[in-house]
Amino acid sequence: MSETTWQDGIGDPDALERLWTPHRMAYIRGESKPDDDSEGECPFCRIPSLDDTTGLVVRRGERVFAVLNLYPYAPGHLMVCPYRHVADYTETTPEEAEEISVLTKQGVHALRQVSAVQGFNIGMNQGAVAGAGIAAHLHQHVVPRWLGDQNFMPVIGQTKTLPELLQDTRQLLAAAWQEAGA
Ligand SMILES: [Zn+2]
Q: Could you confirm whether 85 is annotated as catalytic?
């Protein structure tokens, strides 16, 4: 570590490099995390009222929309959500369940269009105990995977959460989705 980058309070220098990711504090502090389970506190209820760029909305369907995760596990991490504030998969109407399925498939196609994705994790974490960050509003994760991504994702993943890069990803995906005629 050079003299110029030395700061008090960061401990004694050692062999480890530090990658500072202060933007992660927004997630750690729980900013934009709802205070309760009501619709008024729910980011997935608020997002559709924002414009696509601000809300990171990739696709708007009739009953369901697709949005980029603000805190992605991987670049291109999408979430497919009903507009309706429902917590449980069994509460979806047949039409909503169908459209979740349709937009999930379209999202996979769009991600493959813009990147050499090698695999996907697709699924729902239902309930906080199962790992849902916003348990009150159902959302299906579509997470693109690359061979060996977990080796560097804990580091690189954090650098990918910068808003500018997310906006770029959103634009790419939205364009690919349109081109596919979806
Ligand atoms: Zn909601």
A: no
How confident is residue 182, by pLDDT bands cut at 50, 70 and 90? low
Distance 121 CA to ligand 1 centre (A): 23
Q: What string of DSSP letters covers the chain? A: --GGG--TTS-S--S------GGGHHHHTTTT--SSSSGGG-HHHHGGGS-HHHHTEEEE-SSEEEEE-SS-SSTT-EEEEESS---SGGGS-HHHHHHHHHHHHHHHHHHHHHS---EEEEEE--SGGGT-SSTTS--EEEEEE-TTHHHHHHHHHHHTT-HHHHHHHHHHHHHHHHHTT-
Q: What is the pLDDT of residues 62-77, one digit of tens each?
A: 999 999 998 887 889 9
Instruction: Name the active-site residue from 77, 137, 139, 141.
Output: 139
Report the pLDDT value the prediction gives residue 160, as an integer from 0 to 100. Answer: 47
